[in-house]
């Protein structure tokens, strides 16, 4: 049976849970049959209905049954439904993107705003053209603000996401070398991230701007902005007190200085913390509550996560990696005053033609760190290992670490998510 978007929205208001996974079907959820390179969700619609879904939205008439609704494109319908829901509830939306730090910044902003508001925030890595509408469709009347993380790997990706989320506030953490296989150049990365600013410029709103980032300054011309950074003249000024390994910082608003001891590893997290502080101040959160939220925030999911094992101390940063974040992690690790240090690095993926030189540059940076032990993992590093031990995959690396166990080391574990370095943690 055919259905239009408004009729579907009426149905959604009665059954406000949505899933795209026929194996994960909460009772009375609505299943959307999406297509991918290796799957066709239409073929699983019947499974979804058997597994607890009340209805299924499909775009292939061959799979019509009693409780299915036929649309022209299930993916676009999911996005249209999210757009209609976002407009209907009309809650303030903060969109966050950037090459590095966007997830940590999103989590910090959610912690800060959560001191006074009921916050909806992106969960996990649901930051793409499927994840963003799924997040918006979790919004309920009781939510007071939404924080939507936006990822991108191709030109136009952010434009698509802002049209769905329709943000009132925007924050770009930074622009660096990542996903070059899709973008082709740093200029295309900047242009795509800047699509968030373009939306705010065209539709009104406000941005939170890193005052030290000249590129972002130029891109933000004409926008209302609240600034943060280390430079004089920013509305919120911050500076590092120490990072051994946890970041301690001072920040100033007007004439008053405040000290915050975080549980974040690395001086590079200063910008993420200052961004969250600026968001909190803009939304009227009391300063003591802002500081409390930041001090209590504990990173998860192997994002600059500090852990003590039976034998070592590990900084696990194996969720994502690109040349910018890899360099920042190594530079921070190099100055830690630990006696025995080891680095375990996995490939940085999706760099296209720039990959070999990018990995070579990281190896040169490793040379300057004078580490006691170095392990590299992945096909990209194998081309430029320069005498360092390099392993084809995480299984070979884990076997090497079992044979020659590290004890008494402080270890940096850093690599792209696709390399799976977190799977060697039991050997550390």
Explain this structure.
- The structure is a single chain.
- With 428 residues, the chain is α/β, with parallel strands linked by helices.
- It contains 16 helices and 19 strands.
- The chain has helices at residues 5-14, 45-50, 74-89, 102-113, 131-136, 157-165, 180-183, 186-193, 195-203, 214-219, 270-282, 287-296, 323-334, 355-367, 379-382, 394-403; strands at 18-19, 30-32, 55-58, 68-70, 93-97, 119-121, 145-149, 169-172, 206-210, 225-229, 236-243, 246-253, 256-265, 305-308, 313-317, 341-346, 373-377, 390-391, 410-414.
- Strands 6-7-5-8-9-10-11-12-13 form a 9-stranded mixed β-sheet, sandwiched between helices.
- The mean pLDDT is 94.
What's the layout of helices and strands?
Layout: H1 5-14, E1 18-19, E2 30-32, H2 45-50, E3 55-58, E4 68-70, H3 74-89, E5 93-97, H4 102-113, E6 119-121, H5 131-136, E7 145-149, H6 157-165, E8 169-172, H7 180-183, H8 186-193, H9 195-203, E9 206-210, H10 214-219, E10 225-229, E11 236-243, E12 246-253, E13 256-265, H11 270-282, H12 287-296, E14 305-308, E15 313-317, H13 323-334, E16 341-346, H14 355-367, E17 373-377, H15 379-382, E18 390-391, H16 394-403, E19 410-414
Parallel strand pairs: 1-2, 2-3, 3-4, 5-7, 5-8, 6-7, 8-9, 9-10, 10-11, 15-19, 16-17, 16-19, 17-18
Antiparallel strand pairs: 11-12, 12-13, 14-15
Helix pairs in contact: 1-3, 4-11, 4-12, 11-12, 13-14
Helix content: 25-40%
Radius of gyration: 23 Å
* Percent in strands: 15-25%
Uncertain parts: none
Quick overview of this protein structure:
With 428 residues, the chain is of the alpha/beta class. Helices cover 35% and strands 21% of the residues.
